[in-house]
Specification:
There is one protein chain. By secondary structure, the chain is α+β, with helices and mostly antiparallel strands. It has helices at about 20-35, 40-55, 70-90, 100-110, 135-150, 155-165, 175-180, 180-200, 205-220, 225-230, 240-245, 245-260, 265-270, 280-295, 300-305, 315-330, 340-350, 360-365, 375-385, 385-390, 395-410, 415-430, 455-460, 470-475, 495-500, 535-560, and strands at about 430-440, 445-450, 465, 480-485, 505-515, 515-525. A six-stranded antiparallel sheet has the order 3-2-1-6-5-4, sandwiched between helices. β5 and β6 (about 515-525) form a beta hairpin. α8 packs across α14.
Length: about 550
């Protein structure tokens, strides 16, 4: 019988216990069982103990788990996520509350779903990654043998086995055929969803890809790479190849799969309350951090709000449409101007024009009541400063960002404020010069709109061909770049250096996005040791995002005049 949640519910701010030990995770899961059903049956507690023994190598039939990605910690994370989804479901779907029986089945499936990576006793070859392509079948068999030996009813044993089977995401099974009982289908969807959500929300997800690649390398050693490729199996040559594909993996595989599974992850928000889904927030932080390395350091606020579940894609689209309509109305009902026209007519001249207040996408979303101010603020923070990045900043860097934010509030005094902020950035990055470059599509060049450094008066207003130079590459690709020695990088063009009697040795450049569209780049030149780091790139990207927010206001203001 479903019972109301009691005081043992974990605090709303509590996130998955990735680093706090397996026992704490188990306790969180059992607490949910008590809250939902009033007790923790010995059957369930024994299940966790026995599977812990399996992974530790204390079963006479199996070695200890040797892989470091698909380990017991991951299985517990999946259990916890699935348990939280069930509790959220029971809160929202009172009439269809899942009973204790389905909780047990779900926990069993989650615990055993990756046990197929564990080697048989006496098998000393490899760590277990060799079973990557067959681990689901092996997991199903291990679960069957264990549950049968524990006298579980045959129909429950088969139910657990079928639930494990749908964690083979290379297949797209007919869930209704596999699970004609609706409650069992929901629980199965939760387990498979938890498998994806838990791994993507792991605070060390990107770093743990190294462990995943080690498992892939082992299966490549046991299976011919060419044969695998012929069968349609993706064969990765380097760990960086997997990391570079993280965004595509999430967008093209994870999200569609979650949709096919009914997006039952939405019930996590019911569990945590206040509309929060810390798993999705962690995923957003992971992807935001990864975007710093592979595509563009920052994403549109609309994308962030959608991913956080703070606004629907329809609400975002409606707000964007309304934003465009307002711009047309204030333009005297003339035909809509191209984005580049707005830049050319309003952003570039703004560097010598006084600014005023304006309204942009966030204001419109709040006016439409699509998001609450606090939700918009949370989305902005996830966009601008992910937790993982914040923790890496030194006190000096945080002080610099605080000073920059305060100065940028006075942007109405003119673009010289940006110059002051860039000069401060030169000190933080320990570099000789920096500049903001704006893309002028009509002239096909990157215009040096605001330079700093010893040649700032000479270089101001000059243009660099858009198809040349590192800034043009950053603009065209929407990706950051750092070059330690420009003489060995084909993207560098020394035309500007020759004209202004300057020697560029090293460059760091990040894209400048306004309303989700790349309009230029922020560039730093000649670090003292010529070794711009990934951390330097992160700091400059934060600054670029702050500058972009100022420019959003400029475009909104002047496009309406």
């Amino acid at each position: 019988m479903h019972m109301a949640r009691k005081k043992t519910k974990p605090p709303k701010h509590q996130l998955p216990a990735y680093q706090t030990g397996n026992q704490q995770t188990i306790e969180l899961i059992l607490a949910i069982a008590r809250d939902e059903y009033g007790e923790v049956p010995p059957k369930l507690a024994g299940l966790f103990n026995d599977v812990a023994d399996l992974y530790a190598g204390r079963w006479p039939s199996h070695e200890a788990c040797g892989v470091s990605y698909h380990n017991f910690n991951h299985s517990l994370d999946v259990c916890l996520a699935a348990a939280r989804m069930l509790a959220g479901w029971n809160l929202r779907e009172h009439a269809l509350a899942l009973s204790e029986r389905y909780f047990h089945l779900g926990m069993a499936a989650a615990l055993f779903h990756d046990s197929g990576y564990i080697k048989d006793k006496g098998d000393l070859a490899g760590a277990g990654g060799k079973f990557t392509l067959v681990h689901v079948e092996r997991s199903m068999e291990i679960a069957r043998e264990y549950l049968t030996g524990k006298q579980w009813p045959r129909e429950e044993v088969e139910a657990v086995s079928r639930m494990i089977s749908i964690t083979d995401y290379s297949q797209r099974p007919d869930l209704s055929a596999l699970f004609p009982e609706s409650s069992l289908k929901v629980m199965a969807q939760m387990v498979a969803t938890a498998d994806l959500v838990a791994q993507m929300a792991d605070t060390d997800y990107v770093q743990r890809i190294d462990d995943l690649f080690s498992e892939f390398q082992e299966v490549y050693e046991y299976e011919n790479r060419e044969t695998l490729a012929e069968k349609g199996t993706k064969v990765y040559k380097t760990v960086q190849e997997i990391k570079d594909g993280t965004i595509a993996f999430y967008e093209q595989f994870v999200l569609p799969t979650l949709t096919n599974l009914g997006r039952v992850d939405r019930y996590l928000a019911d569990f945590f309350g206040d509309g929060r889904n810390p798993y999705q927030e962690n995923i957003t932080a992971n992807l935001s951090g990864h975007l710093m390395d592979v595509r563009s350091h920052w994403r549109r606020i609309g994308d962030v709000l959608t991913d956080l579940g703070l606004a629907s894609s329809e609400q975002i689209a409606g707000a964007v449409a309304r934003q465009q309509t307002l711009a047309k109305k204030k333009d005297g009902a003339s035909p809509a101007k191209s984005f580049n026209t707005l830049i050319r007519e309003h952003l570039l001249p703004w560097f010598t024009v006084r600014a005023q207040e304006g309204r942009c996408l966030g204001d419109i979303l709040m006016e439409m009541q699509a998001v609450e101010p606090k939700s918009l603020a949370r989305g902005l923070l996830a966009q601008m400063l992910p937790d993982s990045l914040y923790e890496s900043l030194s006190p000096r860097e945080l002080h610099f960002l605080l000073q920059s934010a305060i100065l940028l509030q006075n942007i109405c005094k003119g673009p010289w404020i940006l110059g002051v902020v860039l000069e401060m950035a030169n000190e933080i990055l320990d570099c000789e010069a920096s500049s903001i470059l704006i893309a002028d599509l009509d002239e096909k060049e990157m215009l040096v709109a605001l330079p700093t450094g010893p040649k700032k008066n000479v270089v101001y207003g000059k243009g660099i061909a858009m198809d040349k130079g590192l800034s043009g590459w950053v603009y065209r690709n929407g990706q950051p770049a750092r070059v330690r020695n420009v003489n060995v990088d084909s993207r560098f063009d020394n035309g500007m250096d020759k004209n202004i009697d300057f020697v560029t040795r090293s460059i760091l450049a990040v894209p400048l996005h306004v309303n989700g569209e790349c309009i230029g780049a922020v560039e730093a030149l000649n670090k003292s040791d010529d070794d711009f780091t990934q951390h330097d790139m992160n700091v400059l990207s934060i600054l670029a995002n702050m500058l972009a927010n100022v420019m959003v206001g400029v475009l909104c203001i002047h496009s309406n005049h």
